[in-house]
Amino acid sequence: MTMTANNFLRWQVSYFGFEKDMQQLLALSICQNASLPKKFYPHKTISTNADSVIEIHIYFFPESFNIDAEALEKSKKENVRFLCIGQFNDFDNLLACIQTGAYGCISVMNMYEEIIPAIQSVFQNKVYVSPALAPLVNKYFKEQKDPYLNLLTSKEAKLMQLLTKGALYKEIAWKLRISENTVRSHVRNIYGKMKVHSKTELTRKILNTTLNLQLLFCFQNDLACLCY
């Protein structure tokens, strides 16, 4: 069934993994409220043309939460957005779902009430997470820290920052007001603590960690559940 959110954007819904009765109830909830997703923010909407149809795939995962990556491949197309409904017992489940490309994680306990806000988020290019799952997110980010924060001394941390930016030992020694031999000693300690053997390995490890933390921060700040 194809529905229209405004004069231009048309959308249709497909269901995967649902029992018949559950799917019928969910489809009824969507049909009864099909006009609601028209309220979205113009500067964040899906870029489309008059002939486009956005396909929304809704997946139901059973009690033993398990992402079927192969099954989700059919939903990884330009005009497809998919939502996942299930029981998310911890943040790892939640993050795994988002990392597959899902535009929403909906608690099975509230799926009939939340399916329309989730679809609305799709049109806003946001990730929807059930408000009931917010405590999982907040708890994780309160505990999330740079894994190297307590591993290095403050001087080692400063030295590592200079080193990974390409500074030479002589330059590091001048900036930190220490001798080049002391720089070499710190570098050996850093390599040992970080379990690397070269500046290239060190840089790659720090870059990966920084990117992961930045992605998690962006994820935290883009959760649609914080907007409802």
What does this structure look like?
The protein is α/β, with parallel strands linked by helices. The protein has two domains: 2-141, 3-Layer(aba) Sandwich (Rossmann fold), CATH 3.40.50; 154-214, Orthogonal Bundle (Arc Repressor Mutant, subunit A). It is 46% helix and 14% strand. The protein has nine helices and six strands. The chain has a six-stranded mixed β-sheet with strand order 1-2-3-4-5-6. The longest helix has 23 residues, at 199-221. It is elongated, with a radius of gyration of 24 Å. The two termini are 27 Å apart.
Descriptors:
6 strands; Arc Repressor Mutant, subunit A; six-stranded mixed sheet; Rossmann fold
List the helices and strands and how they pair.
Elements: E1 2-4, E2 10-16, H1 20-32, E3 53-60, H2 69-72, E4 80-86, H3 91-99, E5 104-107, H4 111-123, E6 128-129, H5 134-143, H6 154-164, H7 169-176, H8 180-194, H9 199-221
Parallel strand pairs: 2-3, 3-4, 4-5, 5-6
Antiparallel strand pairs: 1-2
**DSSP strand (E) fraction?**
5-15%
Query: What are the segments in which pLDDT stays under 50 over at least 5 consecutive residues?
Result: 38-48, 224-228
List the secondary-structure elements in sequence, H or E: EEHEHEHEHEHHHHH
CATH architecture type of the largest domain: 3-Layer(aba) Sandwich
In CATH terms, the superfamily of the largest domain is Response regulator
Number of strands: 6
Shape: elongated
Helix-strand makeup class: alpha/beta
CATH class of the largest domain: Alpha Beta
Distance between the termini: 27 Å
Helical residues, percent: 40-55%
- Count of domains: 2
Give the biggest beta sheet. 6 strands, mixed
- If helices are DSSP runs of H or I spanning 4 or more residues, what is the number of helices? 9
